[in-house]
């Protein structure tokens, strides 16, 4: 049974930092590209960041988080991370990690491409 479990969310002041983790089990993690999405209240879920399989050498970010967020992976720990710095109130959302098979780097991930999802972790940024 495949599981993706996010953690690390919480309440932080604007300008602060959080690091989200997504621990995977039940799948060959190294062979999977991974992504982070978020859903703010009253809005549709949106792509945030992606990282290619194995080396994780290729990453892609939505424009609104470039320079502030960093995605990384540790294949030995079956975990993908999202380091979030200089947080803004507009970053408030539930953050989800997702796993997918086929992915060519250098573009956003689309939801339909993802075959496994985590349950989400709440990030609240107070201004």
Describe the protein's architecture and organization.
This protein has strands at 3-7, 10-13, 18-25, 33-39, 46-51, 59-61, 69-74, 79-84, 93-100, 114-117, 121-126. It has 127 residues and is mainly β. The strands form two sheets. Strands 2, 4, 5, 6, 9, 10 and 11 form a seven-stranded mixed β-sheet that branches. A four-stranded antiparallel β-sheet has the order 1-3-8-7, with no helix packed on it. It starts with a strand and ends with a strand. The mean pLDDT is 96.
Short description:
The protein is mainly beta and 127 residues long. Helices cover 0% and strands 50% of the residues.
List its traits.
11 strands, four-stranded antiparallel beta sheet, seven-stranded mixed beta sheet, 127 residues
Order of helices and strands: EEEEEEEEEEE
Structural class: mainly beta
What is the straight-line distance between the termini? 40 Å
Overall geometry comes to globular
- Total strands: the figure is 11
Largest sheet: 7 strands, mixed
Mean pLDDT: 96
Give Rg in angstroms.
13 Å
Instruction: Summarize the amount of helix as a percent range.
Output: under 10%
**Tally of alpha and pi helices:** 0
Low-confidence stretches: none
Strand content: over 45%
């Amino acid at each position: 049974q495949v599981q993706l479990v996010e953690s690390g969310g919480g309440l932080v002041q604007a300008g602060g930092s959080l690091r989200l983790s997504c621990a995977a089990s039940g799948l060959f993690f190294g062979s999977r590209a991974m992504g982070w999405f978020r859903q703010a209240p009253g809005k549709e879920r949106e792509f945030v960041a992606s990282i290619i399989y194995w080396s994780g050498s290729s990453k892609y970010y939505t424009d609104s988080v470039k320079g502030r967020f960093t995605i990384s992976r540790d294949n030995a720990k079956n975990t993908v991370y999202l380091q979030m710095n200089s947080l803004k109130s507009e970053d408030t959302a539930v953050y989800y990690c997702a796993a997918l098979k086929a992915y060519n780097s250098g573009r956003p991930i689309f939801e339909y491409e993802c075959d496994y999802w985590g349950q989400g972790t709440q990030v609240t940024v107070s201004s």
